[in-house]
């Protein structure tokens, strides 16, 4: 957060714009506000997920670990967009700005990430069972 404020100050300095203490305070204040909002969204999401899981099915710690592991096994680009969407609750436009890409590309990447995660979780849910031939 603080490093971002100084990066913005340095960029402004390199662009030849004037720097002032009030401007820097404003930047830091905005970054702190962003961080509080991010934490609030994350806490909100966690509560929502807890309620959803509590209503649908009992969930063991093993399942949480399996889901977390499945997400972590995804390629970085897919894991990143999933976390920004569901943990940080960013919109496709906001994610596009962070990743320096367009919104359509973010939505496509999110779709692929969901598909990959769904496949990984379905393998956990329905492990392939070998059929044993019977002789009748």
UniProtKB/TrEMBL annotation:
<dbReference type="GO" id="GO:0016987">
    <property type="term" value="F:sigma factor activity"/>
</dbReference>
<keyword id="KW-0804">Transcription</keyword>
<feature type="domain" description="RNA polymerase sigma factor 70 region 4 type 2">
    <location>
        <begin position="66"/>
        <end position="117"/>
    </location>
</feature>
<dbReference type="GO" id="GO:0003677">
    <property type="term" value="F:DNA binding"/>
</dbReference>
<keyword id="KW-0805">Transcription regulation</keyword>
<dbReference type="Pfam" id="PF08281">
    <property type="entry name" value="Sigma70_r4_2"/>
</dbReference>
<dbReference type="InterPro" id="IPR014284">
    <property type="entry name" value="RNA_pol_sigma-70_dom"/>
</dbReference>
<keyword id="KW-0731">Sigma factor</keyword>
<dbReference type="GO" id="GO:0006352">
    <property type="term" value="P:DNA-templated transcription initiation"/>
</dbReference>
<dbReference type="InterPro" id="IPR036388">
    <property type="entry name" value="WH-like_DNA-bd_sf"/>
</dbReference>
<comment type="similarity">
    <text>Belongs to the sigma-70 factor family. ECF subfamily.</text>
</comment>
<dbReference type="InterPro" id="IPR013325">
    <property type="entry name" value="RNA_pol_sigma_r2"/>
</dbReference>
<dbReference type="InterPro" id="IPR039425">
    <property type="entry name" value="RNA_pol_sigma-70-like"/>
</dbReference>
<protein>
    <submittedName>
        <fullName>Sigma-70 family RNA polymerase sigma factor</fullName>
    </submittedName>
</protein>
<dbReference type="InterPro" id="IPR013324">
    <property type="entry name" value="RNA_pol_sigma_r3/r4-like"/>
</dbReference>
<dbReference type="InterPro" id="IPR013249">
    <property type="entry name" value="RNA_pol_sigma70_r4_t2"/>
</dbReference>
<keyword id="KW-0238">DNA-binding</keyword>
């Amino acid at each position: 957060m603080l490093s971002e404020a100084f990066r913005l100050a340095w960029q402004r300095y390199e662009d030849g714009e004037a720097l002032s203490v009030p401007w820097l305070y404003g930047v830091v204040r905005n970054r702190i506000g962003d961080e509080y909002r991010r934490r609030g969204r994350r806490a909100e999401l966690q509560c929502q997920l807890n309620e959803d899981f509590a209503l649908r099915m009992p969930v063991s710690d093993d399942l949480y670990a399996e889901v977390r592991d499945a997400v972590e096994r995804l390629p970085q680009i897919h894991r990143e967009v999933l976390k920004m969407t569901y943990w940080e609750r960013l919109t496709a436009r906001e994610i596009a700005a962070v990743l320096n890409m367009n919104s359509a590309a973010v939505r496509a990447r999110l779709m692929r990430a969901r598909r990959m995660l769904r496949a990984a979780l379905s393998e956990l849910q329905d492990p392939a069972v070998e059929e044993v031939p019977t002789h009748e």
